Amino acid sequence: MEQTLSIIKPDAVKKGVIGKIIDRFESNNLRIAAIKKLQLTRCEAETFYAIHKERPFFKDLVDFMVSGPVVVMVLEGKNAVAKNRELMGATNPKEAAKGTIRADFADSIDANAVHGSDSLENAKNEIAFFFGAREIC
Ligand code: CMP
């Protein structure tokens, strides 16, 4: 069993597809071990995405992530990190495989509907960023 962090980004929250995205996870054996809706502060978004701070898209990414509420979740299941990334599809929705979350719900590489941890180590850090142990069931 693994755990990974998923974020439903402001574009998908605004579109009203939180339930449809959660259904993709639950229908594919990823259990919701923790969930909350929140508005990121600029400082929180900058810290969460600090690994990208030298990239040219960093400011746009942070601007977008604070543009509205997000839903953060801990997904749990067999090979959860890889499974979640498979369900999300490629970062750029134009390159995402048919039937993936980004192909179906995302508009652009910035407004790409979801974030998912890219490794088990990052998953542990990203989960700890948003959730205390008592919030994960
Ligand atoms: P995410 O998985 O949340 O991780 C970083 C985000 O930066 C990514 O999804 C995209 O939304 C955004 N981004 C914008 N431009 C790029 C790019 N050229 N390469 C990777 N990520 C990008």
Give an overview of the whole structure:
It is built from seven helices and four strands, in the order βααβααβααβα. The protein is globular and about 35 Å long. The protein has one domain (2-130): 2-Layer Sandwich (Alpha-Beta Plaits). It is of the alpha+beta class. The protein binds adenosine-3',5'-cyclic-monophosphate (CMP). Adenosine-3',5'-cyclic-monophosphate binds at residues 52, 57, 61, 91, 109-110, 112, 115. The site of adenosine-3',5'-cyclic-monophosphate has 8 residues, from loops. Its cofactor is Mg(2+). It is found in: Cytoplasm. InterPro entries: NDK-like_dom (IPR034907), NDK-like_dom_sf (IPR036850), Nucleoside_diP_kinase (IPR001564), Nucleoside_diP_kinase_AS (IPR023005).
Task: Give me the secondary-structure topology.
Layout: E1 2-8, H1 10-15, H2 18-26, E2 31-38, H3 42-48, H4 58-65, E3 70-77, H5 80-88, H6 101-105, E4 114-116, H7 120-130
Antiparallel strand pairs: 1-3, 1-4, 2-3
The structure holds adenosine-3',5'-cyclic-monophosphate.
Function: Major role in the synthesis of nucleoside triphosphates other than ATP. The ATP gamma phosphate is transferred to the NDP beta phosphate via a ping-pong mechanism, using a phosphorylated active-site intermediate.
Pfam families: NDK (PF00334)
InterPro entries: NDK-like_dom, NDK-like_dom_sf, Nucleoside_diP_kinase, Nucleoside_diP_kinase_AS
